[in-house]
Design a protein that fits this description.
Helix content is 18%, strand content 11%. By secondary structure, it is an alpha+beta fold. It is elongated and about 75 Å long.
């Protein structure tokens, strides 16, 4: 089943066609902390080398850190392997989008949450129409 998966599914990593394209025209640039591999064209045609990523696992764009995202979108010329991205002390480390996973945030009282919804405090009064009077 592994060969068929490589041929027909792109969301679990690179397909055979992508791997062949990388062997012919791609140059490995670097790898991030999550194991995603970044490439660019060996010899660009129009002066600007095409850049792409091969995900390690599920193809989810939020798994790319800001420094590699900037390089992929030509915001930075040099990849983070040669010109590391400077971060501030107040910045939190990058985490991918966890929506739909067990790590997603579930507020108190939500259907997916484990906690019980807090009881009403009695300060809510339901809206009632004003008996058909025109506004």
């Amino acid at each position: 089943m592994g060969v068929l998966t490589k041929i027909f599914t792109w969301w679990n990593g690179a397909t055979i066609g992508t791997l062949l394209y990388i062997m012919r025209k791609g140059a490995f640039v670097g790898e991030d902390k999550q194991g995603n591999k970044f490439y660019q064209e060996k010899s660009p045609k129009n002066g600007q080398a095409r850049r792409w990523v091969v995900y390690n696992g599920t193809a989810e764009a939020s798994r790319i850190s800001p420094d590699w995202h900037g390089w992929l979108h030509y915001t930075f010329d040099a990849p983070p392997t040669t010109a590391p991205f400077s971060s501030h002390t107040w910045e939190k480390p990058h985490i991918p989008n966890v929506t739909g996973t067990p790590y997603a945030y579930h507020p108190q009282g939500s259907l997916a949450g484990e906690e019980e919804r807090p009881h009403a405090t009695g300060d809510y009064e339901a809206w009632k129409p004003n008996d058909g009077a025109a506004v």
